[in-house]
Amino acid sequence: MNERILVLLGSINMFIAVAAGAFGAHGLKKMLSEEMLSVWHTAVTYQVMHALGMIAVALLMPKFGGAALNWAGNLMLIGIVIFSGSLYVLALTGTRILGAITPIGGAAFLAAWLLVAWSAYRGMR
C-alpha cells in the first residue's frame, strides 16, 4: 500500500470514527446499556488511534521506506476492521461470540506497532 492510499484510508477511517463517536454519544445513548456504550466507545477510540497511525505510517514511508511499514499500514487497517468492527457489531447486536475475534484485531495492532518500531530501528543503523 503506498502513502497516498494509506492517507486516503486513514482519513476515511477518521471520518467513520468521528461519525461513529457522534452517533454513539447522541443516537445510541438511550438505546444501549452503559456496558454496550462503553464497548462502542472502545471501538471508536481504537479506530481513531489507528486511523491516525495509518497516516503517520504514510508520513514515515519516505523516510524509512521498506516492506515493514507497508505491512504496518495494512495491519492497522486489518486491526480496525476486526477489532473495532467486531466491537461495533457486539454493541449493536449483543452477539458476544464476536468478542472471540476481537483479540485478533488487537494482535494486528500490536504487530503493526512493532513493525513501525523495527523500521525506525533499522533506519538508525
UniProtKB/TrEMBL annotation:
It is found in: Membrane. The keyword rRNA processing does not apply. The chain crosses the membrane at residues 40-61, 68-91, 97-121. It comes from the Bacteria. Keywords: Membrane, Transmembrane, Transmembrane helix. It is a multi-pass membrane protein. Belongs to the UPF0382 family. This is DUF423 domain-containing protein. It comes from Herbaspirillum lusitanum.
